[in-house]
Amino acid sequence: MDIRAKIGERIRELRDKLNLSQKDLAYQADLDRSYIAGVEKGQRNISIVNIEKISNALNMNLNDFFNDAKFNS
Amino acid sequence: MDIRAKIGERIRELRDKLNLSQKDLAYQADLDRSYIAGVEKGQRNISIVNIEKISNALNMNLNDFFNDAKFNS
Question: Which residues form the signal peptide (chains A, B) (predicted)?
Fold first, then answer.
């Protein structure tokens, strides 16, 4: 699976776990909702600054964010 | 510390551990040496695709790459 798709899937899983809408997450991460939607669909080659914004908005540090089987290969 | 600087520091540490030059790493990651130099100086808002290229060139998956105290905050 392409890394963009893995990142998108991970964000969606974590967002769902927190019962946040894309709009909520976008607001907390100070990003556009349409950008979040594109990232979750695996359509964005997201930068590290935006990954950190999103993971912080999901109450996670980057170590925890990438601590998932998806990122073991 | 800014996330770009943390990424740069992590790459430099791992590259030094493998006794690779920036030129070697750039070749294996299929990126420009000047780009690697900029990333290591914390000057680049690197994308996830390029982080994966570099971590693979350092024989690491992303889980291992981010498994460092720098990324715990």
Answer: none
